[in-house]
Batch of 3 targets.
Target 1
Amino acid sequence: MTDKVKVGVVGYGVIGKRVADAVHAQPDMELVGIADIISDARMDIAVKRGYPIYCWDSNFKDSFTKSGIEIAGLDTDFVEELDIVVDCTPKGIPDKNRSKFNNIPTIVQGGEPHKSQDASFSTFANYDDVIGKKRVRVVSCNTTGLARVLSSLDRAYGIDKSFISIVRRAADPLRSNRGPINGVVPVLGKSHHGPDVVTVMPQLEGKIYSLAIAASFTLSHVHMLQIKLNNIPSNGKKDVINLWRSTPRIITRQGREGLFDTAQLVEYYRDLGRLRYDRPENFIWEETIDVTPDGNCYFIMDIHMESIPIPENVDCIRAMLEMEDDYLKSAYKTDLALEILNENANYGI
């Protein structure tokens, strides 16, 4: 395709508003608009950005009128304009939206079941698998982060086994109805994160296990990993750090530089001027990285749950519409437009 592809975003919430901004920033994509049933102050941002707003259900048209929000049309008008749609509505709603999409290519988010889609997607794990697919699920925030580090290690050294412990935020920052809490809530049994990684890295079937707890904070998720490598890095920790420094969307820094906890990370990226203090990159504390003589790799990383799957949504558009057949070239285009380009990373160009 030589012209800009026309992209629509359904659902202007935590993920939808970020996907809309990311698509709008891409030089090879046109954001046709956003569609929702919400007509309150949350739409002010879309209005300010000049995004066309569509009413996703005609039953809510009057509420837009009463709120003084000019709509560009209804759901039927919206879909007619699109080459692809990114459905960012809450869990369970995308399946109900299927009938509205008229078989146009559709991306759904990680909360939707893998088995109901043509494939699940992670840029660095299985980009080629979704080229030309019609309905694809971009995996969740935690799975996106895990797929980035695990695919890099698997390519470089091979993975024998993986054990993942996750401390999950109890709720997104705006979900005040879920707090405050005073406790730690364990996932009773194996968490879904390991099996979800397998949807994009089937070679890890039977080689990955995950546990998780929810704790009383809202800033991010923290992962603690033990990965048994098939081939031991000759220079141990140094080689692993160099691998991740050359991998897009992974940041390694020393905590002693002033980034010693999740609160400091948030403050740092806020001071950098990142919109919404977003950090769509994995952050790994270098002091926590270790490689033992028997090939066990240990590390702790932080995942900003609200923004980390956003670049992958953009790459997924290119894969599904066959706009780019190389995952690194797509990542370069996306990261450059989003101003998160890692100048030390290998983008294959």
Target 2
Amino acid sequence: MLREYRRLKEERDELSKLINIQRNITSMMMEHNDIGELFQEMMKTLKEAFDIRNWIVFLKDNETDEFFVLCSSLKRKQIKELRLSPGEGIVGWVSEKQRPLIVEDIKGDVRARAEGVVHKVMKTRSALVFPVTGKGGTTAVVELINKRRGTFDKEDLLLLSKISEHISMAVEKMMLQLKLEELVITDDLTKLFNLRYLNRTLDIELERANRYHTHVSLIFMDVDHFKDVNDTYGHLVGSKLLTEIAQLLLSRLRSVDIVARYGGDEFVIVLPQTSSKYAAMIAERLRKAVEETVFLRKEGYNIRVTASFGVACYPDTAKSKEELLNLADEAMYKVKYKNRNGVYVII
């Protein structure tokens, strides 16, 4: 009788534990709109549930199919820089097989060598590794590292099987939400930010400039004789040209700078904490980069174009968002009407 009571109590405790985990994951889905934050919170729950010392989450880069470190229990630069090619390491194996794996001895598993830096820093002895899957395959791979007491076993796999679907659903929902948000704020063609995001950004940056008594500069850019490109090569080539120009601009600017497609062949660049003097230097650098680049070389077109740039600055020359946009636009058209391929600064 006592034995039966203990068994029933253990089952009740296990069920209660499972319900709490599932409830926590569901709650996190509602509270977070960032994939990194979601995983950070979920891993707190999993760390307690599986009684582990460390963990690491690898997220799939959909453009390269590589896995990069999204977050981990230990914040180390060498861990953060790790990237794994498709099929590489334990992560690659679990991703391809789409099933969990207990690695009882990391040092004796050849697949772990590709992740050597992680296991060296985390002093990994054993790990429970599982995929987070969605409709498109594996989205992420999670490694639970070193149990505090004992080793990973069938009971851990059983618990994982009961919660893995909840984890995958939470992550898939988050990824879908992020994709939808990205579509709302980005231009379909160039993948740059669109007008909606530009307006939102300007509101934020002007407010910050007022608070900290700094500048915000704006550059309007228009591709010279773009109609000739469309007329000569067709609109499809013209669209590809705009995409390459967008990538060129991004490669020559700071991570804090915002590049948006304003419409047609016009681009707008927001330069936070930048005076008109330095904005003019940046515009000139971009002008030269456009002029010196041979576009669509891989496609065999070898197209050369130039561009006209207009610069305005808040609060030096403009006192509002609307005035900043109008002045930069006017400055750009002064170049267009004069001789093109130049920079005009409103001072």
Target 3
Amino acid sequence: MDQLIEALWRAGGSDLHISGGMVPKIRIEGQLQDLPGAPRLLPDQIDHLLAQILPTDQLDFCRSGQGDLDFSFGWRRTARIRGNLFRQRNSLAVAMRLMPQEIPTFDQLRLPESVRRFAQASQGLVLVSGPTGSGKSTTLASMIAWIAANQAKHVITIEDPIEYVHRHGRSVVNQRAVGEDAPSFPEALRSALREDPDVLLVGELRDLESIRVALTLAETGHLVFGTVHTNDAVQSIDRLVDVFPGDEQSQIRTQLGLSLTGVVYQRLLPRVGGGVVPAFEVMVVDSSLRNLIREGRTSQMRNQLLVGQAAGMMTLEQSLSELVQAGLVTHQDAVARSRHPADISRRRAY
């Protein structure tokens, strides 16, 4: 397994996929390809590889069909591996993501200034959204790393599993893994109320109880970061509200209107010349947006993003257009990732 991870690292890949009856595949710049020189693996060979990184009881848990397994571990003091082990066709398969040990800075991630300011907020809820593999975890890790280095705060992260490992710096950073350090996201969040936190990071806001406690924390003077899987910034708000029964949604909209500080939606695109580059949609919640949230008029919020550039807001299409104009991505790739492709400008000829 160590050799496979090393091959992934040397190839500059992000993900490693191992499944019975195929050559291991790696993802490079968003595209899956065979791992060069690797043989086709049989289920027994995969079991042997997995036994090198996971204890027997965890392997037996997945083999028995009781469920999937999320895990993470450090690799050679160079990177961390985040993985998911699951069954398919009566055998084990695994998907693993490689994350550098060093957390990228704001500049390295090309974060907009308005997104950087979210890390300086004193309280409220900040959502980072996007599809799987869009860099949400890395953006949040960069924010937490900045807070730890520059502010004297108590930071608690609740993750499943822990992805980036943070240094304390000026802050105290406690990282809790669901399933190891806490039984569940809701239980860890409720416990956080008694742990004197200033900042909390919730790996994913996906269940009613976690969202409810996160909103309470954001309303009571804490800065809360969380991720959601949505297709734009506005949809992130609807996603949280829709988790609740109909008779509670009005109250949740009111809480969101009071506590939401900002929403970041992001996508990764192939960079011209190699690599990837992020595009962002940014919502900086002001009084107009708070009213729209409380009244459930989220369909009108995109217009606020279009005219809110002075406050640091931008639509994904504005960000994509900037990347196209700078020659960093092709117009074709930009259009493929947009829900409003007509709003993306082509590169001007000089």
